Amino acid sequence: MAATVKYDEVEVGQEIPAADYPVRRINLVMYAGASGDFNQIHWNERFAKTVGLPDVIAHGMFTMAQAGRFVTDWAGDPGAVVDYGVRFSSMVVVPDDDEGTVITVSGVVEEKLEDKRVVIALTAKCADSRVLSKARAVVQLS
Amino acid sequence: MALNRDFIGRASAPSAPYEVSRVKIREFATAIGDNNPIYRDREAAQAAGHPDVIAPPTFPIVFSLGGGALLADPELGLNFAMVVHGEQRFEYRRPIHAGDELVTVSTVTDIRSVGRNEFITVKSDVTTVDGELVCTTYNTIVERGGAG
Questions:
Q1: Given an 8 Å threshold on Cβ–Cβ distance, is B92 in contact with A82?
Q2: Radius of gyration of chain A (CA)
Q3: What region holds the MaoC-like domain (chain A) (predicted)?
Q4: Which CATH number fits domain A7-22+59-140: 3.10.520.10, 3.30.1640.10, 3.40.50.300, 3.10.129.10?
């Protein structure tokens, strides 16, 4: 494992600049196929509405993967992520149009641990709602 | 309908081994929009110190989706139409790489009511066929209105 970020060059409180991750229906269809999660709430608007949802919503795991990508892009080597957990606090509603929606992820170095590990606290927002809470990744730096 | 509390502590039989392939990792990486070469190019992965391409941190959801058989048991009483994901965590001993053959054992660790919703947490230990622990996942799903 070879993270490109060096432990000694990272400070608690250091911010990782926000990044935008667009989401359209096609991304949910691809995610359904790749993950094997074919729950209809992620692709069938008619069904989503019958179970009380406003529209099709993204898989929570799709959102988690976007915030994961934010961390692995920062770390350089995805294998440096040794622990990653989130709570899904709000839905990512994905309309059936060419725009879709956008998940914005930002992060801050929350804590420096032993063995050159750091805790990254993540914030993921969509349409002004926090879609993840208690989102933390532990990254092995070099 | 309230979930059957008798399921707390219940464990699944070990899964059939899941063979991690480069093709599946690439498909998953594409689906999450991630072009990182360490997921796609063996040489890039080896340059980073891995034996082969590795899988994104959330990849185990592909083969450990909520402890499958446990949650699908009609005796549990889970209505999948009302299910949303509550929490998810992946704890790694090492990255998963192409060529791994992985066995998953899932255990229901908790079932609880919060307001009108039912929460069920499943812990899954992912080991190689030789018994090496690679990753532990924690999955909490919410049945909306289940406790109402």
A1: yes
A2: 16
A3: 12-108
A4: 3.10.129.10
